[in-house]
């Protein structure tokens, strides 16, 4: 296979759809419209900005200016010269890796086809249509998504949030229509690469690896292959001594190698073989994420006809889950890798930019942050997009599992046959594309759609999309990977119980009051798929995305509200509460609303950092009663006040550093007071026993409260002792321990609110390993 890239500069024509009725590129040529230069991959909004037609949508209230373009048509055009090899008769296709969203395609004025899905690739056969040396014209028309949504029927069985009903039948990122983490930006564009693909007559279509069993001495590997071959190759070989058609697989990871050859009698089949002394792929913290560099060769009479290379991770992955979890019937939601229980400490992943063409450029930075935090799972949220191979390649290399939602969120989607077929095609394309990655842990039907049904008095188990269509696609295309119908999933038994406390996996949001309130402390779900807490970005970041008069004060500030995030910014909007919520969380912890920006920012970041540290420690301190937490979230996709621990500009909030400390594989923590004392425990989320010295002392007096040697078994939890601690006390306990010759630190905030912000600021200076920027004088600068 050979590719000819068509990325780079294109021409972009645009106009309000109601003003013109252009139906063909020939009409466009005589329309009098003047194009602007645009980029592919790209988004039209970024092209307008580059052309000086639109101010930066990230700044101030400029996001609202995008509304005027929601009814525009966009016509992309590119001229290119025909390629001799592509014109020589080989199968040739135009491949669009991502188009947003309702598109018609022409080559030299001849219509190639249409598409209506942002999430998947679109291919068009152009075999014999290219001439060497001739200039060809490629045209793509994008209709406005809002207009297309308005033309579609919605039934009473469907439901969406008031700000984004358009998402129901439009297959583009749901957040585009407005969400509480993104401003409304109904994007358009050729947002991923465009290329011409010239196929060889014999080539690999796909290799799908499955690990049947994995042990220290031996692993059983199964490779499904799919080939494109000439039928004549399947005939008996006429060559003297020839071996006919064969497949040869060779792989190496350090000094561990495998080699296997088998005859080919059809274009698809399985290769099954044993790998001795395998190097297994492990989630982060539990071992190395070993990857084999594998080469597959198609041979005929010993001659190589086609070669395919990919990396393979040898690992088994199991999700052990029950339909309910109650006090009487403790449930499970437990991931096992290579037969070993894995305590999940990770985060939710949203697009790193609301203009998706910029997202892939952020992969390296974002995955490096997740790895630095020792996250062993990312949950790719259903309101975004399906990330590309480059994202999964990084997760493969870093040992970060990926929980992949299908792209549906917070709604009740259409149930008719037409929409079922749309979802089936989309899911089939996505599953076949991504299934080879060892980091891919689980497919999930949607985000919070079960809850939408239950809140409206309807049984989510009648949702044919997640109970039938997606379940069948996963079994058809990726039958060895776990599937969960929704996050959180409400089983028939759980729905009959009418209790959120019966769910093994929950999203713990509630009213978001004090982070140690009973909502959090008495939550019974073993696994938290979402939970978060607000944290104000630093002042330097705020000065970048807020107009100067709106940097302060926080109260009744329209730009704070818009970036909080309120996608519609009307007095009755459901999201206006979020700025007040952030301030109330400060007041809950410190008993005040700071009246200057720097103390407000500091107090907010402390509130967020303590909350997220507590959420993670609560899981670790109750291992295996609790099996995982995916906190919300790692990184903002546009400038805002949010739950993210790294803001849009890459500035790390205090919570980032607290999380980094408590997600170390070996961590010493202090539990909540009980019987006049707090217990000190050591958690070990690794496959090696851990032993070393530790010390706990009072931050004010320096008095040692507990010290000695900790000794905790592999993947275990050990109690080290207790410290007298009446609840009336307000103290900061500092913790230090040694592991493998490296010193680590943690802390514990003892007592009940409200704390003194000034006193806490002094404690910050005593917490080892924190950047010096985190104090009331310089935070965020």
From TrEMBL:
Transmembrane region(s): none
Enzyme Commission identifier(s): 3.2.1.25
Domain named Beta-mannosidase-like galactose-binding: residues: 36-192
Pfam families xref list: Glyco_hydro_2, Glyco_hydro_2_N2
One GO process term, biological-process aspect: carbohydrate metabolic process
GO molecular function: beta-mannosidase activity
Reactions catalysed, as given in the entry: Hydrolysis of terminal, non-reducing beta-D-mannose residues in beta-D-mannosides
InterPro entries for the chain: Beta-gal/glucu_dom_sf, Beta-mannosidase-like_N2, Beta-mannosidase_GH2, Galactose-bd-like_sf, GH, Ig-like_fold, Ig-like_GH2
Family as reported in the entry's similarity comment: Belongs to the glycosyl hydrolase 2 family.
Protein name: beta-mannosidase
């Amino acid at each position: 296979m050979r590719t000819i890239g068509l990325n780079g500069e294109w021409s972009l024509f645009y106009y309000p759809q109601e003003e013109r009725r252009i139906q063909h590129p020939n009409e466009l040529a005589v329309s009098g419209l003047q194009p602007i230069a645009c980029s592919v991959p790209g988004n039209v909004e970024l092209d307008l900005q580059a052309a000086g037609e639109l101010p930066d949508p990230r700044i101030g209230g400029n996001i609202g200016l995008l509304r005027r373009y929601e009814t525009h048509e966009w016509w992309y055009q590119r001229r290119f010269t025909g390629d001799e090899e592509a014109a020589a008769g080989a199968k040739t296709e135009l491949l669009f890796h991502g188009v947003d969203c309702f598109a018609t395609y022409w080559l030299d004025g001849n219509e190639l086809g249409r598409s209506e899905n942002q999430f998947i690739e679109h291919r068009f056969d152009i075999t014999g249509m290219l001439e060497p040396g001739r200039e060809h014209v490629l045209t793509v028309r994008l209709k406005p998504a809002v207009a297309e949504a308005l033309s579609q029927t919605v039934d009473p069985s469907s439901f969406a949030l008031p700000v984004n009903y358009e998402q129901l039948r439009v297959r583009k990122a749901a957040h585009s229509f407005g969400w509480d983490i993104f401003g409304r930006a109904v994007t358009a564009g050729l947002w991923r690469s465009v290329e011409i693909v010239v196929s060889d007559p014999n080539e690999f279509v796909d290799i799908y690896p499955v690990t049947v069993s994995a042990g220290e001495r031996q692993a059983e590997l199964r490779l499904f292959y799919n080939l494109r071959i000439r039928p004549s190759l399947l005939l008996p070989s006429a060559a003297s001594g020839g071996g006919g058609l064969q497949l040869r697989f060779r792989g190496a990871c350090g000094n561990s190698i495998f080699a296997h050859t088998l005859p080919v009698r059809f274009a698809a089949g399985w290769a099954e073989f044993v790998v001795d002394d395998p190097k297994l792929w492990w989630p982060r913290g539990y071992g190395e994420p070993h990857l084999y560099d594998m080469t597959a060769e198609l041979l005929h009479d010993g001659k190589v006809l086609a070669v395919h290379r990919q990396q393979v991770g040898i690992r088994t992955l199991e999700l052990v889950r029950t339909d309910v979890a109650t006090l009487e019937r403790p449930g499970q939601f437990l991931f096992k890798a290579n037969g070993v229980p894995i305590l999940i400490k990770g985060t939710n992943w949203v697009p790193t930019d609301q203009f998706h063409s910029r997202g892939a450029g952020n992969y390296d930075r974002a995955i490096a942050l997740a790895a630095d935090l020792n996250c062993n799972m990312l949950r790719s949220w259903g309101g975004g997009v399906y990330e590309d191979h480059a994202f999964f390649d990084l997760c493969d290399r870093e040992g970060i599992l990926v929980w992949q939602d299908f792209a549906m969120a917070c709604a009740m989607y259409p149930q008719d046959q037409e929409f079922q077929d749309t979802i089936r095609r989309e899911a089939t394309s996505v599953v076949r594309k991504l299934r080879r990655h060892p980091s891919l842990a689980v497919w999930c039907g949607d985000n919070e759609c079960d809850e939408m049904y239950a809140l409206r008095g309807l049984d989510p188990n009648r949702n044919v999309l997640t109970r039938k269509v997606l379940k069948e696609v996963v079994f058809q295309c990726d039958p060895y990977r776990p599937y969960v119908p929704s996050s959180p999933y409400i089983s028939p038994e759980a729905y009959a119980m009418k209790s959120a406390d019966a769910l093994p996996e929950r999203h713990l949001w509630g009213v978001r009051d004090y982070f140690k309130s009973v909502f959090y402390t008495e939550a019974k779900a073993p696994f938290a798929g979402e939970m978060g807490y607000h944290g104000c970005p630093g002042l330097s970041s705020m000065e970048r995305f807020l107009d100067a008069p709106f940097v302060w004060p926080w109260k009744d500030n329209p730009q704070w509200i818009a970036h909080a995030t309120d996608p519609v910014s009307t007095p009755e909007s459901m999201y206006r509460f979020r700025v007040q919520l952030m301030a109330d969380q400060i007041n809950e912890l410190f008993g005040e609303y700071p009246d200057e920006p720097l103390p407000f920012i500091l107090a907010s970041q402390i509130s967020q950092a303590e909350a997220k540290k507590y959420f993670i420690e609560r899981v670790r301190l109750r291992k295996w009663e609790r099996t995982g937490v995916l906190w919300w979230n790692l990184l903002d996709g546009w400038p805002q006040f949010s739950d993210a621990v790294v803001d849009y500009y890459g500035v790390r909030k205090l919570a980032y550093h607290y999380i980094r400390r408590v997600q170390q594989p070996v961590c010493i923590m202090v539990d909540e007071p009980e019987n006049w004392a707090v217990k000190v425990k050591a958690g070990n989320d690794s496959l090696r026993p851990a032993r070393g010295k530790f010390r706990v002392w009072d931050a004010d007096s320096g008095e040692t409260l507990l010290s000695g040697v900790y000794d905790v078994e592999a993947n275990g939890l050990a109690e080290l002792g207790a410290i007298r601690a009446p609840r009336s006390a307000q103290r900061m306990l500092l913790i230090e321990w040694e592991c493998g010759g490296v010193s680590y630190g943690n802390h514990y905030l003892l007592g009940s609110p409200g704390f003194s912000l000034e006193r806490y600021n002094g404690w910050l200076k005593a917490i080892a390993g924190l950047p010096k920027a985190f104090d009331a004088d310089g935070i965020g600068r």
